[in-house]
Amino acid sequence: MSLSTPFIHRPIATMLLTLGLALVGAVSYFLLPVAPLPQVDYPTISVSASLPGASPDTVAATVATPLERALGSIAGVNEITSRSILGSTNITLQFDLSRDVDSAARDVQAAINAARSLLPTGMPSNPTYRKVNPADSPIMILALTSSSLTRGQMYDAASTVLAQKLSQVEGVGQATVSGGALPAVRVSLDPVRLAANGVSLEQVRSAISTTNANRPLGAVEREDHYWQIAANDQARVAADYAPLVLRWKDGNAIRLSDVAEVTDSVQDVRNFGVANGKPAILLQVFKQPGANILEAVDRVRSLLPQLQASIPAAIDIEIVSDRTPTLRASVKEVENALVIAVALVILVVFLFLRNGRATLIPAVAVPVSLAGTFGVMYLAGYTLDNLSLMALTIATGFVVDDAIVVLENIMRHMERGKSALQASLDGAREIGFTVVSMSISLIAVFVPILFMGGIVGRFFREFAIVMSAAILVSLVVSLTTTPMMCAALLKHPAPAQAAPRTLWWARFSRWVDGWQTRGLRAYRHSLAWCLRHQPVVLLVLAGVVGLNVYLYTAIDKGFMPEQDTGRISGFIRADQATSYQAMEQRLQRFLAIVQADPAVEYVTGTTGGWQRNAAAMFMTLKRGPGQESSEVVIARLREQLKNEPGARLFMSPQRDIRIGGRQSGASFDYTLQADDIAELRTWEPRIRQALSQLPELEDVNSDVADYGLQTTLVIDRDAATRLGLTMAQIDATLNDAFGQRQVGVIYNPLNQYRVVMEAAPQYLQSPETLRGFFFVNNVGQQVPLTAFARITTTNTPLSVNHERGTPASTISFSLAPGVSLSQAADAVNNAVAELGVPVGIRGSFSGTAGAFQSALAGQPLLILAAIITIYLVLGILYENLVHPITILSTLPSAGVGALLALMWFKTEFSLIALIGVILLIGIVKKNAIMMIDFALARQRDGYATAAQSIYRACSLRLRPILMTTMAAIFGALPLALNRADGAELRQPLGIAVVGGLLVSQLLTLYTTPVVYVALDRLRQRVLRAVRRLRGRAPQAARGPVAPALEGND
């Protein structure tokens, strides 16, 4: 009894089980979260530490280096990078994807504690850490604009109200605010008036810091009443601070307004945001890990009226970026491709069988198998994304294969006169092992993918499991539901029904029958010729193997196809000595040019913060029929902006796959490391200059910032001591004047605001204004700066970068039009080699380019592992070492077809195309399995030679082979021909599969039989040699002599 027998005898139970599987899958489909790609959370932790006033070199040496040494000993750390700027450092740790981020956070805290004794004592606080995901990008950006309110008021509404409400939305992880700062009271000090009134900066700071108090005052009570005590101890606005008494002089009060201008302003005046030409505050909304992006965005959109009502009416909220339109269109297109593929597959079956009842059986098997796969996806916690939907679309050609093979074999038994029930029992039992062999060996292809490491393995693991689940569900359906439906639905046609009912159908049926008959006759003749000229066929097969090697080395290779999302990131880098005011002007100039482009719908920009000579831009393009691609828009804007003085704009399309946390405006990174920072600073400009001359690269830039301007006070310590000044007093006074020092806190019910003290703007224009500052010594005397120091101007690094504890710099670049990543990587490596870079300088690709290099090195091993895995599985199934080789001989032709198709359509051999080739490894060997199983069964009976057996098997199995191959081709065709949103990601897979199947179908129908006969002949010779060595005569073949090839059908 076979596995199918109980299901055939119990049709109602089988039908109900199938219906239950379909219902579970349908419910699971609507519960699956939607995302552009599989959810991959990078275990990343960011450590921050500050040493106010310290130069980047000092921060790197005294803070970053001790922390890096301690953090570098944590298990599972893949990459440590740091960036040290004036007064602070940020260290980013990227862990292995298998590392739990919460456990890693505990190890980070332990390492920080261990390094604490090695850190400077002047640090105001311990280093802190937070968990981040550098690859995460906002799902939505909101812009707040107003014609009447200040930027500080808008920022306050965004930070205090909107960000809190948005973070509470289901599916939203956090909302960040940029483009401004919280409201604050700013005290702009006049050093001349300070000196005239004998007031020191420290006196001002101390007076302001003690103005506000927010402490419990107690209560009074008697028998029948209770009173809380309150006081007007809060100064909240500039008008409350202006009359503050600093000191008394000659009986007169010296007030704050006498020495400074006190205004209601913002904490940081060097922060600026713009949206479509208007001053704006930007709110970036991020999703929670595993959340449905579409649902999260829909919830935010539905909340907008409530958000608008919760802030002042003068503030307008506008959506300037939304990731979901392209995602919705992309997912919709894949779903459409899936439906089209199912329809085409069913059409192929109908054209071959021309029987409505027979066609209904695989038509049921396909959706039921896909529905069961949705259930597996839901249980595994997967998302409905481009990769999983691509897997299901391709799987339509696989899941129908098993049903076709079972159905065709049952129909062949019915053609011999058996009843539908008996044909189903016999046919399912006869073909069961073949179906299991095909499915298990196909799943074996994906086993190496499951063990792929790194980010690439994590992305494609979901693809492999979804495909494997679809194949397993299809196997179960084909051995249970399919034979049951055959027994229930298939019938022998009655004589009256045998004639076609319409003229056109009669002609069509005769045409198909004639085509099949002529095709089978031509195939038999050509196969017989090949079996008589085996050396020629084997020579062709050898040539195909060599052609594979040549094509693989010749084809352009890439990482992931560039998907046009309609969003562009921009990064403006100005001269290193550029001031904030000049950077703001340049940003507005760039924004005006970009906004004027007809393809741009929204453009936003921000500058300020930690990097004064840089700005970030974000562009959303208009979408619709006939709209230009991101690459075309970038090329046009690059040409318009290339002559803008003092700054450069680097642009790159936004991708759904982001690897690495660096933000440079370019797409790929090349990192230089050296133990000697002086040697790195010597060679980095040379290497950057060489790369900028390469025609394969565009937008070459670097994160090195070594030429900022620095005003250095060369202090005569002896003179300072003699004048009664300490270094602490000098530093404190300078910080009070030039550091936007926060010297007070204003307590409000919803937030806390600051009082900021700084010299008046006219005293911040030039280093020469330092000469007008006075320092108050320990006896209250005023000492001019020129009495104990001289002023020099030098160049200084604006930032110092480390990677794994050594000095590093990263050169970023984008690809020129028509250039593949493999070509660019070769050009970079050759250019660096020609420079004769010393061994102390170590260069390597990082981020996306580094992942590409790693994946490229592993591609041959992955293909080899898939082949070995299939061989092992087939050897176990057949209990034979030779027959698996026959089956694997089908693979070279598939590889040639895939590579030729990709080259014909000028498509890179990307990771998506690689998955297509691996799929082909599993697909094309199914044809060989169907041939060999029948040949072995006939040969084991002893009634035919190897040549006669394989000839007979090929003749009998030609129809199911063509049906399954055509089904697989039509299943992949919608992906290959698609041109809608997201098609760039899907096309390589479809092109590779269709091309590989077409060529392999043409060749393997002849090479597989010849290899089978050749290996059988070799096996017989080996057996005869072994028997001779053992002294035994070879046994004669059992049974009668088989007739000639052409007659044995």
From TrEMBL:
Primary location recorded for the protein, binned into one broad class: membrane
Give the CC-aspect GO terms. Answer: plasma membrane
Q: Quick check: keyword Amino-acid biosynthesis in the entry?
A: no
Q: Which named protein is this? A: Multidrug transporter
Source organism's superkingdom? Answer: Bacteria
Q: Which SUPFAM superfamilies match?
A: Multidrug efflux transporter AcrB pore domain, PN1, PN2, PC1 and PC2 subdomains (SSF82693), Multidrug efflux transporter AcrB TolC docking domain, DN and DC subdomains (SSF82714), Multidrug efflux transporter AcrB transmembrane domain (SSF82866)
Transmembrane regions: 12-32, 336-353, 360-381, 387-410, 431-451, 463-490, 536-555, 861-878, 885-905, 911-937, 958-977, 989-1015
Instruction: Read off the Gene3D superfamilies from this record.
Output: Multidrug efflux transporter AcrB pore domain, Multidrug efflux transporter AcrB pore domain like, Multidrug efflux transporter AcrB TolC docking domain, DN and DC subdomains, Multidrug efflux transporter AcrB transmembrane domain
Is DNA repair set as a keyword in this record?
no
Recite the UniProt keywords alphabetically.
Answer: Cell inner membrane, Cell membrane, Membrane, Transmembrane, Transmembrane helix, Transport
**Which compartment or compartments is the protein found in?**
Cell inner membrane
Q: Which organism is it from?
A: Acidovorax temperans
The UniProt entry lists membrane topology as: Multi-pass membrane protein
One Gene Ontology term of the molecular function aspect: xenobiotic transmembrane transporter activity
